[in-house]
Amino acid sequence: MSKGDLNSLSLETVLVHGTVPFDPATGAISTPIYQSSTFRHPGLGQSTGFDYGRVTNPTRAELERTVARIEHGKYGLAFASGMGAISSLIKIFKPGDHLIVSEDLYGGTYRLFDEYYGKYGFSFSWIDTSDFAKMEAAVRPETKALFIETPSNPMMKVTDIRRSAELIHKRGGLLIVDNTFLSPCFQNPLDLGADIVVHSGTKYLAGHNDALAGFLVHSNDKVEVDLRNAQKSEGASLAPFDAWLLLRGLQTLAIRMERHDKNAAAIAQWLRGQDRVEKVFYPGFEDHPQYQLSRSQTRGHGGMISFYLKNPADVAVLLRSVTVILFAESLGGVQSLITYPLVQTHSAIPEAMRLSAGVNDKLMRLSVGIEDVKDIIADLDAALTQCKKENK
């Protein structure tokens, strides 16, 4: 298979074959795990392209090329976690720089920015980026980037990627989009004007709740030099075995995302009809405030749903009553997971900001897996029935 053929392949085929369909040395169709910390030099001033494992590794390099291709970027960088990726990303900015960040995003990102980089001279404004006027009003002369999650975590708000790119590019800044919730199967922010895409590869890209990873994808030559230096210097690069797990997970990403999407649509609609449920947050509803925007920049709605219970006392009962759905942090794996953001994923966010964003004591977040949708619904039904018994 020639390089030209590879460049013309569909997303689904690239996910299965990667950028190197087989190992040229042995014919192995599974990328080898190069479990080596260092690599022999042929001679003084010569290199095979691989020198030291923290800097480069053949297994990780194939993964980085593959993720870059499916996100339509020139460069991909793989890290030991999503937070490792974001931490290295911040190194391309300097003290005094200001970033506008979605207020409704993963709590770990807030903790990293506020508790750590805030004390090194960076400043951050936490804005509802689905409201363009608010985002525009937050721009300062020192604003160097917009950092958005869309759909947002956990309130499922949608930010206009095209308008965000136009806004920040007029000021010479960068648009950074966390694309974890939708994956490259349903959204490609670089095609819409974003400069850098962030992924927690732990989620949908790996897909099996068995590996931690993070990614940055972009097409800027200068930014690439800075990011590679940060990755090398901080040492947060992805290990070879984890890179192999991600390559294996990617092979089924397209078909998994189809099932996540189909299951979530059915469950979101079902939840709307339950008398213990107050409100369901899901961008696939036609009455979602940004439904038309979502359709204009995505190809699917993903597997994430959030919802309010009417009675906060139902939270504990629901979490101990589900059996098919697992009460655990994280998302995007083949198993359905339910999370209580108030005390788990978003506990690092100050209470006032959390409540302003909608993260209260009634909010549940559901990562819909690929199980039979009838079993997931039956599990939720039984758990909500138990809530009714215990909290009449």
Task: Give a description of the structure.
The chain is an alpha/beta fold and 392 residues long. The chain contains 15 helices and twelve strands. The strands form two sheets. The chain has a seven-stranded mixed sheet. A five-stranded mixed sheet has the order 8-9-12-11-10, covered by helices on one side. Helix 3 runs parallel beside helix 10 and helix 13 (314-321) crosses helix 15. The longest helix has 20 residues, at 253-272. The chain is globular, with a radius of gyration of 21 Å. 48% of the residues are buried.
What string, H for helix and E for strand, traces the elements in order?
HHHEHEHEHEHEHEEHHHEHEHEEHEH
DSSP strand (E) fraction?
A: 5-15%
| Overall radius of gyration | 21 Å
Shape: globular
Number of helices: 15
Reading side by side through the largest sheet, how are the strands ordered? Answer: 1-7-6-5-4-2-3
Strand segment count: 12
Helix percentage range = 25-40%
Query: Distance N terminus to C terminus?
Result: 64 Å
The whole-number mean of residue pLDDT values reads 95
Main β-sheet, in a few words?
A: 7 strands, mixed
Unreliable parts: none
Given helix and strand content, the structural type is: alpha/beta
Outline:
The chain contains 15 helices and twelve strands. The chain is an alpha/beta fold and 392 residues long.
Notable features of this structure?
single chain, 392 residues, alpha/beta, seven-stranded mixed beta sheet, five-stranded mixed beta sheet, 15 helices, 12 strands
Sequence-ordered SSE layout with sheet pairings:
Elements: H1 3-7, H2 11-17, H3 58-70, E1 75-79, H4 82-90, E2 98-102, H5 107-116, E3 123-127, H6 132-137, E4 143-149, H7 161-169, E5 174-178, H8 183-186, E6 196-200, E7 214-218, H9 221-234, H10 240-250, H11 253-272, E8 277-281, H12 291-297, E9 304-309, H13 314-321, E10 326-327, E11 337-339, H14 351-357, E12 363-367, H15 373-390
Parallel strand pairs: 2-3, 2-4, 4-5, 5-6, 10-11
Antiparallel strand pairs: 1-7, 6-7, 8-9, 9-12, 11-12
Helix pairs in contact: 3-10, 13-15
